[in-house]
Amino acid sequence: STSPDYLELRSSFRRFAFPMTIAGVASYFVYVVASIYAVDFMSSPFLGMRGLNTGIMLGLFQFVVVWVWTAIYVNYANRRLDPLSARIKERIVNEGAA
């Protein structure tokens, strides 16, 4: 049978990963759809600066979003997933040694 630690690890990962994946895909598609249908908004100067439009800044902001989500995931994995996986690994090693 599947161990309770494994079930908890899988559940914790899924509860975190699925919403974050949906948020990431939604963020990307909102940007793409805005670039298609909100051309005037996306081509407007960003904060009044010539040569830098809102679309470019929102595109660059996608990189920031990915970096922040990665940092959030690493923090979550360190706090919640790694201790569970360490317990599973320890149990497997101990069972193999017996």
List the helices and strands and how they pair.
Elements: H1 4-37, H2 39-43, H3 54-97
What this model shows, in words?
The protein is mainly α and 98 residues long. It has helices at 4-37, 39-43, 54-97. The radius of gyration is 21 Å and the shape is elongated. The two termini are 19 Å apart. The model has no long low-confidence stretch (mean pLDDT 92).
Q: What portion of residues belong to β-strands? A: under 5%
Helix-strand makeup class: mainly alpha
Radius of gyration: 21 Å
Count of DSSP H/I helices: 3
**What do the pLDDT scores average to?**
92
Number of strands: 0
Distance between the termini: 19 Å
**Approximate shape:** elongated
Following the backbone from N to C, one meets helices and strands in this order, namely HHH
Please supply descriptive tags for the structure shown above.
single chain; mainly alpha; 3 helices
Summarize the structure.
With 98 residues, this protein is an all-alpha fold. It has helices at residues 4-37, 39-43, 54-97.
